[in-house]
Amino acid sequence: MQTLGLSKHIVAALRTYKIISPFEIQERVIPKILKGANIIAYAPTGSGKTLAFLLPIIELYCRDPSPYFALVIVPARELATQIYKFIHDFGSSSGIKSVEIIGGQNYVTQKSAFINYPNIIVATPGRLSLLLKEHSITRHFFMLQFFVLDEFDSFSEFYRSTISLNKFFT
């Protein structure tokens, strides 16, 4: 993993998760993200896509910490929770503050989480759109270094289904 440009600290932390060698998608995108490239990547489920974008985000944050560093939008609460938990567990030793913004959780608590200047925000579109209507929160998103749409194919599928249903009922 160190050959991809990740620091010894991150490689050592990965070993605690029994992650020793990268998947193909990680080999292909991590070095590019670390160099500042914009990436659109596709890989099958279970191929390491999530770490392919999270590891360079964590690495670059560790090099130059700042609030509101990354926004990761995912289509489902379960995926948001999984990503948030990894960032929280993995990144907390690096001082990374993360917040999970999903439906079914207390809105006021989620809104107030922005007071603590989270570095990585993991959100579902519905709850995020509600929060973005709050002008006091919107200003924080101008500081983002990374914007990630994970499982984008699910978003586009949902959009197509919604349009189809809308045409059917109108």
From TrEMBL:
Query: What keywords are annotated for this sequence in UniProt?
Result: ATP-binding, Helicase, Hydrolase, Nucleotide-binding
Recorded GO cellular component terms are: cytosol
Annotated CDD domains: DEADc (cd00268)
Q: In what residue span(s) does the Helicase ATP-binding domain sit? A: 30-170
Molecular function, one GO term: RNA helicase activity
Matching Gene3D superfamilies: P-loop containing nucleotide triphosphate hydrolases (3.40.50.300)
The name of this protein is ATP-dependent RNA helicase dbp8-like
Where does this protein come from, organism-wise?
A: Dermatophagoides pteronyssinus (European house dust mite)
